Design the sequence.
């Protein structure tokens, strides 16, 4: 057996054995981690090793949170559990798509979300209602227009929105769509 063949066999064996090396026995978790992950105990041995590692890491992060942060995390987790399975699947897919975006696009989306969160609840509700009131085709057109705008055009559009003149920009693609052959 050549050295290259032997090295390849060792590499293949290491790759095959790697998942088992990641597996965590329930008893390997600290008592605090076990307490946090209590609901997962019954099926712990059936979980993929990567899932076990991820849960152990999350439990460790949870334990480092302040009581207020822990309470907020519990609340988010309960909200997540109450979602229908199909909605959770959609959210996971959107998150996966987000993670596949280039870092600069992720940063741009985070910034837009941050600005959205800074709006008053009334402004957010109004914006959502306006967005939902237009057709999917109009939404695609608006997204495309936004992508093609330079920063100055985007600034002007935001200013118009603040001044209550956003309706014009939302209606403009609709009018274009109706007049197109």
Sequence:
């Amino acid at each position: 057996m050549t050295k290259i063949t032997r090295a390849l066999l060792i590499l293949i064996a290491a790759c095959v054995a790697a998942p088992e090396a990641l597996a965590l026995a329930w008893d390997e978790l600290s008592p605090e981690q076990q307490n946090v992950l209590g609901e997962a105990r019954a099926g712990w041995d059936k979980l993929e090793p990567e899932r076990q590692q991820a849960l152990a890491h999350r439990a460790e992060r949870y334990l480092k949170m302040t009581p207020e942060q822990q309470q907020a995390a519990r609340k988010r987790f309960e909200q997540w559990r109450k979602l229908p399975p199909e909605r959770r699947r959609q959210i996971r897919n959107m998150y996966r798509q987000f993670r596949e975006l280039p870092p600069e696009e992720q940063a741009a989306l985070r910034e837009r979300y941050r600005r959205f969160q800074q709006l008053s609840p009334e402004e957010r509700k109004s914006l959502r209602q306006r967005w939902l009131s237009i057709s999917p085709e109009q939404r695609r057109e608006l997204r495309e227009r936004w992508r093609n705008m330079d920063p100055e055009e985007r600034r002007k559009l935001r200013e118009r929105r603040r001044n209550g003149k956003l309706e014009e920009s939302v209606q403009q693609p609709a009018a274009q769509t109706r007049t197109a052959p």
Remarks:
- The mean pLDDT is 83.
- The chain has ten helices and no strands.
- The radius of gyration is 25 Å.
- The CA atoms of residues 122 and 128 lie 10 Å apart.
